[in-house]
Amino acid sequence: MDPGYVTLQIFNGLVNGSFYALLSLGLAVIFGVLRVVNFAHGAFYMLGAFAAYLLGLNAGIGFWPALLLAPLVVAIAGVILERLLLRRLYGLDPLYGFLMTFGLTVFIQDAMRLRFGLQGQPYATPAELAESVSLGLTSYPAYRLFVIAFSIVVAVGVWFAIERTRLGMVVRAATERPELTRALGIPIDRWVTGVFAFGVALAALAGVLAAPMRNVSPLMGGEAIILTFAVVVIGGMGSIAGAVVAGFTVGVLSSVAAILNPALENIVAFALMALVLLVRPAGLFGSVDPT
Amino acid sequence: MSAIDAGAAPQPRSARLRRWAVPLALLALAVAGAVLLPRALYVVLALDILLYGLFAVSVDLLLGFGGLLSFGHAAFWGSAGYVAGLAAKELRLAFPLAALAGTLAAMAIAVPIGYLSIRRRGIYFAMVTLAFAQMLFYIANEWRDVTGGENGLQGIPRLGFDGRSVGRSADFYTAALPLIFIGYLAAWRIVHSPFGHVLVAIRDNEARAQALGYPTARYKLIAFVLSAGLAGLAGSLFAIGHGFASLENLHWSKSGEVVLMSVLGGIGTLWGSVLGAALVLLLRDWLSGITDASGVVTGAVFVALVLGFRRGIWATAGDQLRRLGRRSG
Questions:
Q1: B7-46 pLDDT, tens per residue?
Q2: Closest CB to B116 among A89, A222, A277
Q3: Angle formed by the axes of helices B252-265 and B43-66, to 10°?
Q4: Backbone phi, then psi, for B312, in 5-degree steps?
Q5: Which residues of B touch A (CB under 8 A)?
Q6: Which of B124, B141, B150, B291 to mutate to test binding with chain A, by most A CBs within 10 Å of its CB?
Q7: Which of A88, A110, A266 is opposite residue B296, by nearest beta carbon?
Q8: Contact A95 B123 (CB under 8 A)
Q9: Residue B57 sits in which domain range?
Q10: How far is CA A106 from CA A43, A222, B196, in A?
Q11: What chain A residue is nearest to B259 in terms of C-alpha separation?
Q12: Contact check, Cβ <8 Å, B260/A110
């Protein structure tokens, strides 16, 4: 086996893992506070990519400002959806939130298909990162290295915000003991919209990062979300560390398996999920309650 | 989700006649309705309604009576279609045998998937079934020699037992009707059996059912496999009826679509699912002549349904009827 190719695949795996990590991170944060498994997370990822594409096309806004602006725009859309629709489902069985966000996904995806068609739109790699960097055994696109580094920084930042700040303390308390937190006089409901917006922004951020690498297409979110579900089951829902570790693990193992047989690439995540369900149903970092 | 009263009260002797007369009358009505359906619509749509109806019933069997929302039932509908299609095309099996092969294959696939999925409950169960279904989608996509990949499995024959092809769709509809009814009757029988009652008990309080000595995991697994069998029967006949098995039938959107039908009809009403399926298909059929935005409409219906119509058509209509009855009486 060519060691250069193996290195290349490991880095490709880290790139894919970055996306899984960012997506499952947002999913975990939203689930933690809202008790909603946001099926539309993939749609927000897709909208993030489209927002970057459209900002560039219509306003000439480049990649770097878009990295901040696009998640902001999509998060505003998320706030509107939360206020208008999701809010009405709190307190019901979480399955209803799942069903509604599924409906939203179908709606958003088809609306984008009608407007932009199914063929992907190209998005240019930022000029600063267009080169390749030598990694010794192989050379690698600088942009992809940036994606890995940036995702790790974001993941660590989110971890810090949740584990080490006052805001994070409230979020954790609301996640683990919502009734008790309310009883202590902390207005959880006021945080809910903000947390949803934050989770949606993370998905959109992943979308902007994906835009220069993958075609910006209405279908890009559908498959991403299901793989993210597998990642979340592996890591343990609601666990920040679990989301990140499982994301990178699935990414790297999938790419390494693809060296043996390209057909395996898409299957590894699910095989890993089956294994985790068999050995540790609550997930690698999950709490004891496996429901 | 919604609570269903499935308890069987002890019945006096005089009620015995009614106990049989009512279901038999309803059955006769259903048969008459199914026979007349192609006269009201065109025959392909009529067949689709009955098959998607059975598919939706299989989802409701798990969701309404077991409390398990499978978001991956396309796995059984779709893979049964491939197996039945291959059995008809390569082995030249008569269509009821090909459908049987598809049904059994779906049940066999459901054993490992069910075994792993029932280790989680509620929303996680939905996510896990969805993920496993997507795995089958990828496998079918890669296994081009067998499934035809993106082209699908084309030219599936509709063979009778005499080895001749059932040419007209109307003839196939009539020939397939008994099989479809076996599927519906099986669902009805499962729900009204002691097994079905235990399932409801587990749905309402699993810990209590366990304490009473029921092996709840085994019950849930059996329910999962039976439900997959019904979805498989429907999926087999769908593939044979259309002469085509495709990846689309394994796709996650198909799993969501059938959940929509089931919830629209009313969770835990069983027959409401058929109504839900009919409504979705009729809506889509009508829309296809007007617009290309069927996903937009389906998605919006889904959202509106969850927001304001969670109990579904069947239960809501039942309430209205009772209210009318009370007013007149």
A1: 445 555 666 666 778 778 888 888 888 888 887 788 899 9
A2: A277
A3: 80
A4: 85, 170
A5: 1, 69, 71, 112, 116-117, 119-124, 126-128, 130-132, 134-135, 138-139, 142, 252-253, 256, 259-260, 263, 292-296, 298-303, 305-307, 310
A6: B124
A7: A110
A8: yes
A9: 23-251
A10: 9, 9, 33
A11: A99
A12: no
Minimum Cα–Cα distance from B254: chain A residue: A106
Q: In this structure, is the dihedral angle defined by the CA atoms of residues B86, B90, B91 and B93, taken in order, positive or negative?
A: positive
pLDDT confidence of residue A241: 85
Query: Would you state the pLDDT for residue B7?
Result: 44
Are A263 and B142 within 8 A, CB to CB? yes
pLDDT band at B309; cut points 50, 70, 90 = confident
Q: Sort out which chain B residues have CB atoms less than 8 A from A227's CB and list them.
A: 131, 134
Nearest partner of B97 among B280, B4, B236, B2, judged by Cα: B236
Do the domain assignments include residue B28? yes
- Residue B288 covered by a domain: no
From the list B1, B121, B303, which residue is nearest A107 (CB)? B303
Distance to chain A for B63, nearest Cα, Å: 11
- In this structure, the dihedral spanned by the alpha carbons of residues B176, B182, B185 and B187, taken in order and rounded to 10 degrees, is -100
Number of domains within chain B: 1
Residues B49-67: pLDDT tens digits?
999 999 999 999 999 999 9
Stretch among A80-84, A261-265, B111-115, B241-245 having the lowest mean pLDDT:
A261-265
SS3 of residue A139 by DSSP: strand
Q: Determine whether the interchain pair A270/B131 forms a contact, defined as Cβ–Cβ distance below 8 Å.
A: yes
Contacts of A162 by beta carbon, 8 Å cutoff, 6+ apart: A29, A168, A171, A172, A240
CA distance A153 to B322: 61
Domain boundaries, chain A: 15-222
Give the contacts of B113 (CB within 8 A, at least 6 positions apart).
B72, B75, B129, B132, B224, B228
Residues A206/A220, Cβ–Cβ less than 8 Å: no
Confirm whether B111 is domain-assigned.
yes
The amino acid that residue A26 corresponds to is G
Q: What is the pLDDT of residues B246-276, one digit of tens each?
A: 999 999 999 999 999 999 999 999 999 999 9
| CA A81 – CA A74 distance, rounded (Å) | 11
Across residues B292-299, what is the average pLDDT?
A: 88
- Residue in B with minimal Cα distance to A98: B123
In a domain, B116, yes or no: yes
Alpha helix ranges (H) inside chain A = 3-34, 41-59, 63-84, 94-116, 142-164, 166-176, 178-183, 188-210, 220-235, 240-260, 268-279
Q: Which residues of A touch B127 (CB under 8 A)?
A: 37, 229, 232-233
